[in-house]
Amino acid sequence: MRWKTFVIREDEYPDVTHKYNHDTFAIKDGGTWLTIDHVLNMNCRIISIGEIILTSDDLSNLLDAWMAGELPKLEHFAARVEDLDLFTVFKDVECKRMDDNVNFTIRNGPYLIEREFDGRNAIVFGTTSIEILVLQEQLI
Length: 140
Fold this sequence. Notes:
By secondary structure, the protein is α/β, with parallel strands linked by helices. It has one domain (about 20-135). The chain contains three helices and seven strands, in the order E-H-E-H-E-H-E-E-E-E. The chain has helices spanning about 35-40, 55-65, 85-90, and strands spanning about 25, 45-50, 75-80, 95, 110-115, 120-125, 130-135. Helix 1 links the parallel strand 1 (about 25) and strand 2. The termini are far apart.
């Protein structure tokens, strides 16, 4: 199932994300009503949200949840976020700079993180949007 070409309004589909257990959740525009609780209750491989009102603290909670093994199917998360601060996003997560990347900047990344319990790696980067790419192979 792919939702990308129309706007979902909260009053029209109040429980849609709490029941969402499909491969891809994508909203191009109109995702401003989604909260971090909606995102944490999704069980999707790909989550792509064009506009969302999440804070850097919310994104830190998302990373903390992934690090704890929640969102087990997640492979790719992308969202446009206002005032993104990766330092706040990483406040509880140990990350490594990917210095060999020619596009690396301290403010925007990319950074590599690793879940302790299973060794899965993810790359996190962002400027006005954030992307989390869960890798199939272990890099650390």
